Amino acid sequence: MYAFTLERPTTLADATKLAAAGVKVLAGGQTLLASMKQRLADPGQLADLGGIKELSGIKREGNAFVIGAMTRHLDVANNADIKAAIPALANLAAHIGDKQVRAMGTLGGSVANNDPAACYPSAVLALGATIHTTHGTTQRKIAADDFFQGMFATALKDGELITAISFPIPKKAAYMKFVQPASRFALVGVFVAQTDSGVRVAVTGAANGVFRHKGLEAALTSSFTAASAAGVKIDPTDLNADIHASALYRANLISVQTQRAVTKMLG
User: Fold this and answer.
1) What is the secondary structure of 204-243 as a DSSP string?
2) Which domains does the chain have, with CATH numbers?
């Protein structure tokens, strides 16, 4: 690991100033610290967001839950209100990585990093969540459909911080994850949500970033059955192929995991 200095801001205003000055922010550190240990990253200066109380917590606002960016996976998984209203989100959080990752990893860190096999981006996209950010004195609310832009790429500007994410409560939802056993990331994960505007289906782990599958959405909006999902042909052309699975295998998994999600929701 290269030498670095560590700042520990206690207010969002201080963190915003540091980020604007080019200081690398540290959320849960589940990706950044591992990269630093391998000397793949040399930020020079870090700002640990862990001491900023206003960035943590879960509250209900109308028909949505607003979850602070520094809220740990474990806290989302164990929250009674989330379990009752969006059990799919709590279940997703409960199966990220291992106990150590869930105890330290954060919602905002995962979404900002946008690993192509991460679980949270699929929930954000399928539920039509809104990402709240701050950049200097400017606040933004970014729709999930506009936020994710490919492998490790998002709509965040340099120095812009996620402060919270607002998750609308769906009619029903389910997340089915086919785990890559060594990493615990999703080989393929499918999040299906029935919303007021129709069915949304978000896929993670299968391509170079999380994406909505419009074919599955159209079929399930028309007829919400596993058979309807099974009738949709999944094109493998742009899917990942590696030592873990071929593109065809991932295409089949998208179909199978969607059918399982629908069956669970109808259960």
Assistant:
1) ESSSSS-EE-HHHHHHHHH--SHHHHHTS----TTS--SS
2) 52-168 (3.30.465.10), 172-266 (3.30.390.50)
Looking at residue 1, its amino acid is M
Amino acid letter at 71? T
| Sheet bearing 130-135, strands edge to edge | 58-61, 64-68, 161-168, 130-135, 138-143
pLDDT tens for the 267 residues of the chain, in order:
899 999 999 999 999 999 999 999 999 988 899 999 999 999 999 999 999 999 999 999 999 999 999 999 999 999 999 999 999 999 999 999 999 999 999 999 999 999 999 999 999 999 999 999 999 889 999 999 999 999 999 999 999 999 999 999 999 999 999 999 888 899 999 999 999 889 999 999 999 999 999 999 999 999 999 999 999 999 999 999 999 999 999 999 999 999 999 999 999
Structure tokens at 147: 């936020």
Angle at 46 between CA 43 and CA 52, to 5 degrees: 150
Helices 214-222 and 247-266 meet at what angle, rounded to 10?
30
